[in-house]
C-alpha cells in the first residue's frame, strides 16, 4: 500500500465510521426506533463527532488492524524480509501443521509438547475461573447485600490497594513466600507440621495461587455490580417462604446475577489463558505454559508467522469459550458488557 493509500485509510476510515453513525441515527429517528434523544443530541455535534472519530480510530488501529495482520501473518511462511511479498510469499498452513505435528512437512507424529502445554493452559484457566467464582461470590454478595457503607469502603480499599503493586512484583512476592526457604515453609517447619520443606513451586501451587490472586478483582466487581442491583425484598420474600440459603442463592440471586457471572468468568479465563508474567516466574520446572511458547516463537525462534499462528489458535479458543459461556447462561454479548 502506497503513501496515498495509507493516508486515505488513516483519515477515511474514521470519517466513514462517523458517517455510519450519522446514517444510523437518522434511520432510527425516521423509523421511530429511537426512544430518547440521539447520541449527537445528548452529547452535542462537536463532542459526539470527536467521540465517534476517536473510538473508530482507536478500535481500528489498536484492535482490528493488528488482529487482521496477525491472522494474515499466521498463514504466511517464514521468509527473509527481501522475499516478503515475492513469489514465495504465499498462503500456507505449515504454521498450524507445526503446532499439531511439530514439523512443517511431516505428519508422522504429534507435537505433544506444545499440545500438552496448550491443553494444560486451557484446563488450568477453566479451573482457576471456577475457583475464583467460588471464592468471590460470597465476597461480592456480602458487599452488595449485607455490608454497610463504611464496611464496603474498607473492603474495597483492602482489595484494591494490593493491586497498586506491579503484577511482576506480586508474582515474585508469591515466589518468596512459597519457596523452600520461604516464610510459609519456615512457619510449617517451626510448628512441626512438616519434616521437610514443601516444594510449592515445583507442584505449581504457586502458579495457581498467583494466577487466581492476580484476577480476583476481575471476578469480584462484575459479580458485585450484578448482585447489587437485586432488590433485597426478593431475598426477604424467599426467606419468609421458608427457602433455605442455598435455594435462595441458586434460584434467586444467581439467575439475576447471570450477566455478572458470565462477565467475570470470561474475563478471568481470558486473562489466565493469556498470562505471561506469572507462568514465567511461578511455574515449576516441569510445567510448560502456552503463552511462553508463543513468546518464544516470536522472540527466540524469530518465527513471527508461527508465533502469529499460535496466538491466533489461543484467540480462537478464548472466543469459543466466551460463546460457550453465553450459550450456557443464555445471554447476549450486550448483556454481559453492560
From TrEMBL:
Q: Where are the transmembrane segments?
A: 7-27, 47-68, 117-140, 146-165, 205-224, 261-282, 308-329
Read off the SUPFAM superfamilies from this record: MetI-like
Keywords, A to Z? Cell membrane, Membrane, Transmembrane, Transmembrane helix, Transport
- Cite the InterPro entries for this sequence: MetI-like, MetI-like_sf
User: What does the UniProt entry say about where the protein is found?
Assistant: Cell membrane
Chief subcellular location equals membrane
Q: Where is the ABC transmembrane type-1 domain?
A: 118-325
Topology of this chain in the membrane: Multi-pass membrane protein
Q: Which PANTHER family match?
A: INNER MEMBRANE ABC TRANSPORTER PERMEASE PROTEIN YDCU-RELATED, INNER MEMBRANE ABC TRANSPORTER PERMEASE PROTEIN YDCU-RELATED-RELATED
**What protein family does this chain belong to?**
Belongs to the binding-protein-dependent transport system permease family. CysTW subfamily.
What is the protein name stated in its UniProt record? Answer: ABC transporter permease
Organism per entry: Ancylobacter oerskovii
Top-down, what is the taxonomic lineage of the species of origin? Bacteria, Pseudomonadati, Pseudomonadota, Alphaproteobacteria, Hyphomicrobiales
